[in-house]
C-alpha cells in the first residue's frame, strides 16, 4: 500500500482522480442528459428541474459529511468505495429507463446516483483536509477540482461521441464502469486513522458556525455559485437548439469550458496560496461579471467556444480560491462535516440557478439569462468585502 504521509506528492493525483469520477457524473447530468432530453422534445423547464433534483444531495451534503465524520473510526476509504459503487449501479439502471415514458423513475434513479457520488465526495474532502498542510490547500483543491473538470471534459467529448455513434444507454454504462474503477483505487493507499473514538460533532460544529466570519463566508459562497448554475445546463441546450449542433458537436464545444477550468484551477490554486484567497476571488469574480454577461454576443460556435472558455478559466480560479478559503475556516476534527456545510450553501446557489434557468429562458430568452448570469456576481463581490482573511503570504 502507498502511504500518503510518506509519499506526499501522491495526494495530488489520488484526489484529482477521485474528483475525476465526480466530473464524469456531473458531465452526464449537465451536458449529456440535457441534450438527450432535448432530442426527445422534453421542455427546458422539465430538463432543468430534473438536473436540479440531482443537485439535492449536494445541497444537503453536510448530512453525508456528518455520517463520514461520525463513523470516522471506519476511515474514509470505505465510504468512497460505497459511494462510487452506488452511483455506478444507478447509471447502469438509467440505461434501461426511457425518460420520455418514465420521467419520474429516471429522476429518482438519477437522484440516487448523485447521492452515491456525494458520499465519495465528502469522504475525499475529509481525507484531503486531514493530510494537507495550510500551505498545500490551494494546490490540493486545485488538483481536486482540476480532476473534476477534466472528467467533465472527457465526458463531454468521449461519452457524447459514444452516445451519438451507439446510444445514450451504452454511454451511461461506459461512464458507470469508469466511476466504479476509480472508486476502488483508494484501497491501494494506506489510510492513517488518528481519531480513536467517536467525536461530538454537534458541539464542535456549533462553536465553528457561531463565528461571524464563517457565516459571512457561507453567504458569499451562496451568491458566488448562482451564475454557474444558470449557465451549466442552458449552454448545452443553446448550442443544441439555437446553433443546431448534434450531441457530439455540443460535447466538443461545451468541453472547452471544463478544459479551461482545469487551467484556471491550477492558476487559482497557486494564486490563492501565494497572493491570498480574497485578492484572487476579487480578480476571478470581477472578470467573470464581464465575460459571463458577454455570452449575449455568442451567436456562433466560435464565439461561444471562446467566451465559454474564458468563463470556465475564471470559474476554475474561483473554485480553487474559495475551496482554500473553506479549508482555512474548517476545523480538521470535523473536516468532512464543516467543509460539507459550507459547500452545501454554494451548491444551493448553483441548484437554484439551474432550477430557474429553464423557466427563465422560456420567459426571457437565452440572451437575458446570459446577461443576468454575469450581473449576479455583483452581490457576491459586495459580500466578499466583509470576509476576513489572513493577508500574510503563505510559504510554499
Describe the protein.
The protein is mainly alpha-helical and 396 residues long. 78% of the residues lie in helices and 1% in strands. The chain has helices at 11-39, 44-59, 61-70, 77-94, 103-131, 137-165, 168-183, 201-209, 212-241, 247-275, 277-293, 301-328, 335-364, 366-375, 377-384; strands at residues 2-3, 189-190. The protein has a two-stranded parallel ribbon with strand order 1-2. It starts with a strand and ends in a 12-residue tail after the last helix.
Brief descriptors of the model:
two-stranded parallel sheet, disordered C terminus, Growth Hormone, Chain: A, 1% strand, 396 residues, mainly alpha
Write the SSE topology.
Blueprint: E1 2-3, H1 11-39, H2 44-59, H3 61-70, H4 77-94, H5 103-131, H6 137-165, H7 168-183, E2 189-190, H8 201-209, H9 212-241, H10 247-275, H11 277-293, H12 301-328, H13 335-364, H14 366-375, H15 377-384
Parallel strand pairs: 1-2
Helix pairs in contact: 1-2, 1-5, 1-6, 1-7, 1-9, 1-10, 2-5, 2-13, 3-5, 3-13, 4-5, 4-7, 5-13, 6-7, 6-10, 6-12, 9-10, 9-12, 9-13, 9-14, 9-15, 10-11, 10-12, 11-12, 11-14, 11-15, 13-14
Order of helices and strands: EHHHHHHHEHHHHHHHH
Proportion of beta-strand residues:
under 5%
3D shape? globular
Please give the share of residues in helix: over 70%
- Low-confidence stretches are 391-396
Estimate the mean pLDDT confidence: 87
CATH architecture: Up-down Bundle
Strand order of the largest sheet: 1-2
Largest sheet: 2 strands, parallel
Distance separating the two termini = 28 Å
Cα-atom radius of gyration: 20 Å
Number of strands: 2
- Whole-number total of structural domains: 1
Class computed from helices, strands and strand pairing: mainly alpha
Q: In CATH terms, what is the fold-level topology?
A: Growth Hormone, Chain: A
Count of separate DSSP helical elements:
15
CATH class label? Mainly Alpha
Amino acid at each position: 500500500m502507498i502511504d500518503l504521509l510518506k509519499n506526499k506528492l501522491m495526494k495530488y493525483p489520488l484526489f484529482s482522480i477521485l474528483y475525476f469520477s465526480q466530473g464524469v457524473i456531473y458531465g452526464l447530468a449537465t451536458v449529456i442528459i440535457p441534450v438527450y432530453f432535448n432530442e426527445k422534445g422534453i421542455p427546458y423547464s422539465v430538463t432543468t428541474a430534473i438536473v436540479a433534483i440531482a443537485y439535492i444531495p449536494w445541497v444537503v451534503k453536510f448530512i453525508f459529511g456528518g455520517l463520514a465524520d461520525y463513523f470516522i473510526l471506519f476511515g474514509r476509504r470505505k465510504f468512497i468505495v460505497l459511494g462510487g459503487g452506488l452511483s455506478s449501479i444507478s447509471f447502469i439502471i438509467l440505461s434501461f429507463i426511457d425518460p420520455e415514458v418514465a420521467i419520474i423513475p429516471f429522476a429518482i434513479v438519477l437522484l440516487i446516483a448523485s447521492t452515491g457520488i456525494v458520499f465519495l465526495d465528502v469522504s475525499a474532502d475529509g481525507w484531503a483536509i486531514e493530510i494537507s498542510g495550510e500551505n498545500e490547500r490551494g494546490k490540493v483543491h486545485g488538483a481536486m477540482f482540476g480532476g473534476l473538470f477534466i472528467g467533465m471534459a472527457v465526458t463531454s467529448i468521449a461519452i457524447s461521441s459514444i452516445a451519438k455513434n451507439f446510444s445514450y444507454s451504452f454511454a451511461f454504462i461506459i461512464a458507470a464502469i469508469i466511476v466504479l474503477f476509480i472508486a476502488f483505487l483508494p484501497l491501494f493507499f494506506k489510510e492513517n486513522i488518528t481519531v480513536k473514538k467517536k467525536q461530538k460533532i454537534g458541539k464542535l460544529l456549533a462553536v465553528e458556525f457561531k463565528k461571524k466570519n464563517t457565516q459571512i463566508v457561507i453567504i458569499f459562497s451562496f451568491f458566488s455559485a448562482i451564475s454557474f448554475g444558470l449557465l451549466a445546463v442552458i449552454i448545452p441546450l443553446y448550442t443544441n437548439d439555437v446553433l443546431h449542433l448534434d450531441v457530439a458537436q455540443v460535447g466538443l464545444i461545451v468541453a472547452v469550458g471544463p478544459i479551461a477550468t482545469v487551467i484556471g484551477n491550477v492558476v487559482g490554486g497557486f494564486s490563492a496560496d501565494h497572493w491570498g484567497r480574497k485578492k484572487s476571488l476579487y480578480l476571478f469574480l470581477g472578470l467573470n461579471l464581464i465575460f459571463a454577461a458577454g455570452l449575449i454576443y455568442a451567436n456562433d460556435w466560435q464565439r461561444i467556444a471562446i467566451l465559454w472558455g474564458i468563463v470556465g478559466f475564471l470559474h476554475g480560479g474561483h473554485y480553487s480560491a474559495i475551496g482554500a478559503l473553506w479549508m482555512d475556516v474548517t476545523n480538521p476534527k470535523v473536516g468532512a462535516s464543516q467543509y460539507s456545510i459550507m459547500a452545501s450553501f454554494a451548491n444551493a446557489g448553483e441548484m437554484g440557478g439551474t432550477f430557474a434557468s429553464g423557466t427563465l429562458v422560456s420567459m426571457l430568452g437565452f440572451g437575458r439569462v446570459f446577461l443576468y448570469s454575469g450581473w449576479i456576481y455583483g452581490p457576491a463581490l459586495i459580500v466578499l468585502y466583509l470576509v476576513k482573511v489572513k493577508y500574510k503570504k503563505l510559504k510554499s
